[in-house]
Amino acid sequence: MPKRVLQGIVVSDKNDKTIVVKVERRFTHPLLKKTVRRTKKYQAHDEANTYKVGDVVLIEEGRPMSKLKRWVVVGAVASTGEAVAG
């Protein structure tokens, strides 16, 4: 089974080797037929402390690393000032 990959914005980088990523999903409400936005925060492993608040990153499912951390950062989609390193 393939691992899920999500895209989101880094909202916190205070912890060592961990970032908090806010992922937004949009869907049509089944009854009202209106587009609804829902957000969820995921803690992801960032080994080199590379990513900062505001960066748009891709995260992928991984093994459990702590009580809440089950995602690993794959790479940056966009950065907040410097060039994006792939």
From TrEMBL:
InterPro entries recorded: NA-bd_OB-fold, Ribosomal_uS17, Ribosomal_uS17_bact/chlr
Domain of life of the source: Bacteria
Lineage per the UniProt record: Bacteria, Pseudomonadati, Pseudomonadota, Alphaproteobacteria, Hyphomicrobiales
Protein name: Small ribosomal subunit protein uS17
CDD domains the record matches: Ribosomal_uS17
Gene Ontology biological-process annotations: translation
Function: One of the primary rRNA binding proteins, it binds specifically to the 5'-end of 16S ribosomal RNA.
GO CC field: cytosolic small ribosomal subunit
SUPFAM superfamilies: Nucleic acid-binding proteins
Keyword check for Metal-binding: no
Assembly with partners or alone: Part of the 30S ribosomal subunit.
UniProt similarity note: Belongs to the universal ribosomal protein uS17 family.
Keyword terms: Ribonucleoprotein, Ribosomal protein, RNA-binding, rRNA-binding
A single GO molecular function term of this UniProt record: rRNA binding
Organism field: Pseudoxanthobacter soli DSM 19599
Keyword Ribosomal protein found: yes
